[in-house]
Amino acid sequence: MSRSAHIDRFVTDNLPPKTDWPDLVFDRPELQFPDRLNAAVELLDRAVSEGHGERPAILGQDVRWTYRELQQRVNRLARVLTEDMGLVPGNRVLLRGANSPWLAACWLAVWKAGGVAVGTMPLLRAKELKEILRLAQVSHALCDAALAEELVAAQREAPVLREVKLFGRGGGLEACMDGKPADFLAVDTAAEDPALIGFTSGTTGVPKGTVHFHRDVMAMCEVFPRHCLKPGPDDVFIGTPPLAFTFGLGGLLCFPLWARASTVLLEKLAPEPLLQAIAEHRATICFTSPTGYRQMAGLASRHDISSLAKCVSAGEALPTDTRDKWREASGIEIHDGIGGTEMIHIYIASGPEDYRPGAVGKLLPGYRGMIVDEAMHPLPPGEVGKLAVKGPTGCRYLADPRQKDYVRDGWNLPGDAFHVDEDGYFYYHARVDDMIVTSGYNVSSPEVEWALLAHPAVAECGVIGAPDPERGQIIKAFVVLKPGFTGDAAMTRTLQDFVKAHIAPYKYPRAIAYVDALPRTETGKLQRFRLKALA
Prior knowledge:
By secondary structure, this protein is of the alpha/beta class. The protein contains 17 helices and 26 strands. The protein has a nine-stranded mixed sheet, with helices on both faces. A four-stranded parallel sheet has the order 4-3-5-6, sandwiched between helices. Strands 16-17-20-21 form a four-stranded antiparallel sheet.
């Protein structure tokens, strides 16, 4: 390992022992990184030095920054961090805000100054923020003034947070930058110096801090975008995932800059405003969740989205019916993928040219994978088991004993049940914890959800296994109906019969509860653990 630039060694000292790390694989030319590497230099400074300075980089509400303008703002912000806030390399900086050009500049400035960025979801409350401050020993924060109240409340109980600057309307960060020189010599970080701590999004209710290096940030850019998405400098990225979520950090900041393209960063992009923004900015590449595509499918005809060429779905399983509805509405076949905070981004994916019905896709170049049983023995094609994967990125939890659950024998175990076919296509079944065992049958929650979603009355649904004294578990569905439909006994029979007609009859939901909304994370993932608590 090359000499670290970090003076504050907290993160490095709280990594798991090397013996508990996954095996890391760098067997491709594009994954050969130098010992000294700073992600902000590679993504931004190098773009300017290559002649892209006058190209648009980041677009927002009444904002249009070129690469050079973004670089100047990042440099001044890095000076505020180091000169005014006392940041030293290795300090953790909490970033709090909805997607915006200023939040993007904060991410890059923290990396350039040698700090470790800790992204947080905008809806987190003081209690949750306090826990993140404690776990990551966060000393500095850059926060949108509109979201300051909860952070201030958390800071009162977490004195480790010493320095806070607010940006946006009512904040003083921009004023602090005025008069600062527009140059800044990036900290000479090692490729294995920590760059970010990503906290898991909470589908299990127990978030963990995952550490990724500068090398990991660049590795994610050299895999999915290079080999599957294939963006170019004229592309305009847009989407909904927060930058605090590594799906959004890659798709809406790192990937566009890596491609020398531009990105649209707007707050509160619900389906209708997202479609409006696609039309206004002539966006070409969209990142959002399966739920987002399903909701937009019914609205797309009202907007001119003819500029859109590529769409990416990740974060949760993509139902076939949602894929079909979006293709019918837009003419676009979705790029599907599965990744995770622990792996930083997507490692199995498919594009329109290699899509196979029902499959997520194949392992991306640089990654290896297999399906294993509980003893880590490889299973043959067609047999359902746990996914095991390794590649240029992998899980390193910050001071967390659950590292041993995620990494075994050098393999990452994301907790997903899959099978693989003879041609290397991977088929998702469920989270391992979401497999339902009813009367001796194994049933995947997403499969039942996809069947229900194909019915015209169903807007959203979540399926779990509910305890049952006779069957062990029964399949229970929580259903959000579209306007104009009533959740009564007749509707229940209709939906049950519909499922029986489309998948094996034993997979139909024996119980259906009608709800106004489903519990989801800020990234759009269904929180089945909360449905299980209701059951």
